[in-house]
Amino acid sequence: xxxxxxxxxxxxxxxxxxxxxxxxxxxxxxxxxxxxxxxxxxxxxxxxxxxxxxxxxxxxxxxxxxxxxxxxxxxxxxxxxxxxxxxxxxxxxxxxxxxxxxxxxxxxxxxxxxxxxxxxxxxxxxxxxxxxxxxxxxxxxxxxxxxxxxxxxxxxxxxxxxxxxxxxxxxxxxxxxxxxxxxxxxxxxxxxxxxxxxxxxxxxxxxxxxxxxxxxxxxxxxxxxxxxxxxxxxxxxxxxxxxxxxxxxxxxxxxxxxxxxxxxxxxxxxxxxxxxxxxxxxxxxxxxxxxxxxxxxxxxxxxxxxxxxxxxxxxxxxxxxxxxxxxxxxxxxxxxxxxxxxxxxxxxxxxxxxxxxxxxxxxxxxxxxxxxxxxxxxxxxxxxxxxxxxxxxxxxxxxxxxxxxxxxxxxxxxxxxxxxxxxxxxxxxxxxxxxxxxxxxxxxxxxxxxxxxxxxxxxxxxxxxxxxxxxxxxxxxxxxxxxxxxxxxxxxxxxxxxxxxxxxxxxxxxxxxxxxxxxxxxxxxxxxxxxxxxxxxxxxxxxxxxxxxxxxxxxxxxxxxxxxxxxxxxxxxxxxxxxxxxxxxxxxxxxxxxxxxxxxxxxxxxxxxxxxxxxxxxxxxxxxxxxxxxxxxxxxxxxxxxxxxxxxxxxxxxxxxxxxxxxxxxxxxxxxxxxxxxxxx
Length: 681
Description:
Blueprint: H1 20-31, E1 36-37, E2 44-48, E3 51-55, H2 66-81, H3 83-90, H4 94-107, H5 115-130, H6 148-157, H7 165-168, H8 202-210, E4 227-232, E5 235-240, H9 248-262, H10 268-283, H11 286-298, E6 304-310, E7 324-331, H12 333-344, H13 346-351, E8 367-379, E9 388-391, H14 395-400, E10 403-408, H15 409-418, H16 422-427, H17 431-456, H18 469-472, H19 477-493, H20 497-500, H21 507-523, H22 539-554, E11 561-566, E12 569-574, H23 577-597, H24 600-612, H25 616-626, E13 634-638, E14 641-646, E15 652-660, H26 663-673
Parallel strand pairs: 3-13, 8-10
Antiparallel strand pairs: 1-15, 2-3, 4-5, 6-7, 7-8, 9-10, 11-12, 14-15
């Protein structure tokens, strides 16, 4: 699961590819009109609204063979070929709106010095960043800082058509939330996400999937993962994503590039897995999807890997349907070797966890962990990207075959190189906390990511006969799972075993830095991402709050975490790290019980009681204190541009890595080169 948090699926092949002349023509097409800069320029690109745009390098690119570079290039093109899918999945009018706004932007020759035009440009960039008109993190609809009269002037001046609901929704209150996870509402009906027809309800979804029975109950199929559920003449039907089906024109382009990748696969296992992925795209068959994930999980050799398909279910209020996303990655050999010790000791971590014995796996299998460097992203993982991934998501595959976990090393490095220390100094309680964070914070974050993905998501088991969490825990499934994995990481971050394994030189100081940072973020600093008065909606934000708030409350009697007010400002200080470690263990035990037993009442009480509501006075204070920091709270990335050189025969002879100069240029190029879907699908 992605740490926006993530995923992983892969690899490649034996099949042959299209003719070499096609490669030359397509290579020229997809990179045209991109103004690039030298690859070693500053990580910061630009800022607008609440967004900072960064760029990342691809360390180790020059160490790949030409064949491996071709593999990366083809996989990157396959990912971008499906880019429009996430736009349509996010909202039914997104593509129509984007095309209209982009036409205005590129053809308007009127006055561009006005405040209205500046606001229009900022709004378009926000829409690009979110892959639609709803905020990428809060899910709230983006509000233009210009009125409908000005937009109509722009549309008229550029002969652009945008009318009806697609125009009105930019300014009215309809479809206000992409994903509405609120208690007591019909979550499907009140969510604007385009996974369901506008008249489909929670009850419709539950009724429809009650009739779906997997051929092997011990290996439940991921029903709903690759389809849209709509009503046709009052009857519920699935529109399946596949060649010849929903999104078929884009999927055919994805398949074309995957077949090229298959022709340069690194080994047979990669090729066989990729062949199954191609078959899945062509048929939409969920058994093929599981066969692919089994093959991909077992394919661990090679320098190149990738994620490509409909995977994470965070955007579905009920957790059935997967968002389109891709990540292409190459090994960071040095870091992967160091971190393999975590996966190599997975059974020790499971055996020594505070879980009830019946909830522990007796044989943790196939957990592989690598630090990788991203070479390209698309769909729901771009421009906003995860930093860690653990896949596949199916519990039975994790138990029987294992899972793959990755940490996106160059993404994490880019984040680290773009930030400052101002917020730390403002919100940390004392100098000791600041020094611990400055010296050990980055290592603590990397270890938490590793433990979260490798040990956390792979740990625990469901009780016999208990259904998948999307069925038992419903709209709380995602936040429960992310919190559970966070708790595994937190529990072991304050353990001398990490030093025994050679992962840290001072386990206690690393653990203290990790605990300080988690509590500070979960109870205070993540609130800068919310508007005053908002509830916490996003699954990961919810999990950080309910974890932090629960241990704060349960530790009050012993003053484990102290709330301090000094000079009108609030701080949280951990007085007893050992007892906090015990509290994290107690909560981990309970969250695993909830998952293992499918206890909906308990997860509802936990999340609603600790993870949703915000102390409004504290929130107002945090927002006021944060005003002094101009750096936006959210970051994302432009992707490097891979430019192939070809000979007279159309064969690729080299591939160079360049960087886009601006976010706008990359977005416009993507819209031109990968425009593979109509406005209405």
